Structure formats: C-alpha cells, structure tokens
Amino acid sequence: MLAPQIPPNVILNVSICVALLCYGLWGIFDKKALEKASSREVVLTLYLARLINLPTTIAILFTMCPGWHLSWPLIFWAFCASASAFTSTIAYTVAMSLCEASYVLGVTASYSIVFQFLAMFWLGEPVIRERLIGAAIITTGVAVIGASRNKAIPFPKGKKLAIAITSLVLATFFWGLTGIFDKRAILIGHPFEVALAQGICDLVLIVGLFCYHFKTEGINLRLTNAQTWKFCSLSALAWLIGNYCYYFAFAVGSASYVIAITSAYPLVMYLFALLLLKESMNRQRLFGIALVTLGTILVQFTQSQI
Q1: CA 43/CA 182 separation, integer angstroms
Q2: How far is CA 220 from CA 210, 216, 284, 303, in A?
Q3: What pLDDT was estimated at residue 183?
Q4: How many CB atoms lie within 10 A of CB 226?
Q5: For residues 106 and 146, is the Cβ–Cβ distance under 8 A?
Q6: Counting Cβ atoms within 10 Å, is residue 93 exposed (0-12), middle (13-18) or buried (19+)?
Q7: 271-to-37, 125, 180, 212, 276 alpha-carbon distances in Å
Q8: Do 29 and 49 form a contact (C-beta atoms < 8 A)?
Q9: Where is mean pLDDT largest: 31-45, 154-168, 196-210?
Q10: Contact 17, 253 (CB under 8 A)
Q11: What is the mean pLDDT of residues 47-65?
C-alpha cells in the first residue's frame, strides 16, 4: 500500500524529518495562540480546527487509496490511541497547573523510555541498549532546556502533591501507551486509514469535551478572535501533516525507534522559538540542545536494528 518504488529507509527518514519540523512548529503556533486568548479557549478552538483532519483525510483516501475501508479492529485500536492521548493530555494539564513547567516537561519527556519497555511486551520489540540510552539522553536534554525557563513556582504539598505525582505518572504512562495503540492500528491499515479512524474517535471525544464545558461553565466562550483562529488553524495544519508522517514512519520502521527519535521535537520547537519568537540563548539551553542532539544521533545509529 506504500509506494513500492520508494525505499523504506527513505520513507522512514523523510517522514521523521517532516514530523519533527511539523511538531516543532505546532508548539510555536500554540504559544502564539495563547497570547491572544485563554488556555481553555485555545484548547477548544484547537480541537475545532483539527476537524479539518476528517474531510482532508477522506479526500486523500478516495484519491490515493481506492477500495479503502475501516475495519472494526482498526477502529478499536484507533479509539484506544485517542482515549490514551486524551487521558495523558488531561493529566499533563493538571500537572502543569500544580508544578513548575520545566519539571513537568522533564518528567513527561520520559514517555519514550516507558514506550521502550511497553513495546517489548505488547509488540515483541527487543529493548536495544543504545536506543534506550539515547532516549534517556534526549529526555535529560529536554528537561535541561525546560529548566532554563524556571520561574521558581513552589512545589505542591499534601493533597496537591499526591495529585501532581499521580498526574505526572498517568501523563507519562499514557503517552507511552498511545504509541503502542498507534502501532497496532498501523499493523492493520494504511496510515491514512488510521488517521481517519483516529479523527473520528477524536471527534467523539471533542463532542464530550464541549458538552462537559457547557454543562459546567455555560456558553461563555469567545471563539471568534481572528488571531486565535489564525494560529490555531496553523497549529492544526502542522499537527495534521506531522501525524501523517508519523504514521508513515510507523508503517516502515520500528516503533521504539520512531518514538525515541521523534521525542526530540522539543529541540526543534526551541530552535524555532529562537528564530521566530526571538527567545534568548544561554549556556544551560545550549547544554540541553547538545544533549538532545547527542541522544538523537545515538538513536539514529540504531535505525537498522529491529
């Protein structure tokens, strides 16, 4: 179903490069959107903008994949992936509201390490030492870059501490688990079929999210800000293209390799922040960049391994 005339390693490398670029831009556009509206308004606008996934993917399937269909096993794994990602996002948001952002970023960045072990049990992929070490170095580098923006928020205590720890564990675990479900879906269908199935499942979750919001907060959102829609739409486009490439990489490469190397996307996001948002450079950030680069190179050397 993938173009046979293109070598798998070319598809893998190009897909990963484009995914990293898109995920980096995704974070920049989200940041710009947050300058124009509240976090809740941005989240809901983003989910609405991401509905472009459905008509776009359907059009691509009818054009490029005649005879496509969504099987129930594919829909099942796609729903599991959507629910897992949704759960991790909620847990991540709760943790961010209670802890220093750099601490949350550093802990949850270890999802790629969690995935290495989950893949061993769920997908039968071996734990490769160099890949695991590379993922750990990338995680450390992401944490160092994030810590360079430290605002010294007091660490939570008592009940809030328990909630924060639980949220961090859930976010990290479910982000790792999402990759497992993605790979299981890819083993059944074409990347574009998986994208459509997840888009449908996301729509169900989005409707539930809106119903919950309107029940608890009422209809009091300002979702008409042109600048917010501009950056949320750009974010949704970057997310959509990044996900397409992510699925294609999954289709031809080892899941643990793809997850480990794409976990370096915060580095790309930070480099875009330097260029587009004019953020400053310092020694700590430079050290973090060096660590992420080193970890990425180490993971890249394992590409030929299962």
Answers
A1: 23
A2: 12, 11, 42, 50
A3: 93
A4: 7
A5: yes
A6: middle
A7: 24, 32, 29, 37, 9
A8: no
A9: 196-210
A10: no
A11: 90
Lookup result for tokens 């220093």 = 100
Q: What is the DSSP string of 58-82?
A: HHHHHHH-TT----HHHHHHHHHHH
The first and second tokens of residue 62, run together, are 């009818």
What is the Cα–Cα distance from 145 to 36, expressed in whole angstroms? 25
Q: State the residue for tokens 């989910």.
A: 47
Give me the residue label for tokens 């974070």: 27
| Mean pLDDT of all residues in 233-240 | 92
Tell whether the model's pLDDT for residue 39 goes beyond 70.
no
What's CA 159's distance to the chain center, in Å? 29
Lowest mean pLDDT among 60-74, 143-157, 206-220, 283-297: 143-157
Structure tokens at 46: 């983003």
* Confidence (pLDDT) at 148: 61
What is the reported pTM? Answer: 0.84
Phi, psi of 263 (to 5 degrees): -70, -5
Identity of residue 82:
S
282: which 2 tokens? 């310092």
CB crowding 18-53: b at 16 or more within 10 Å, else e: bbbbbbbbbbbbbbbbeebbeeebbbbbbbbbbeeb
Q: How many residues does the chain have?
A: 306
The helix/strand/coil state of 205 is helix
Q: Are 54 and 241 in contact (CB under 8 A)?
A: no
**pLDDT at 150 > cutoff 60:** no
Residue 194 to residues 70, 100, 101, 161: CA-CA distances in angstroms? 8, 35, 32, 38
The pLDDT, as a whole number, for residue 153 is 55
HSE of 214, CA atoms in CB hemisphere, 13 A:
9
Q: Given 3-state DSSP classes, what are the helix, strand and coil percentages for the chain, each rounded to the nearest 5?
A: 80, 0, 20
CA separation (Å) from 230 to 32, 52, 79?
10, 14, 29
The pLDDT assigned to 188 comes to 94
273 CB-side CA count, 13 A = 22
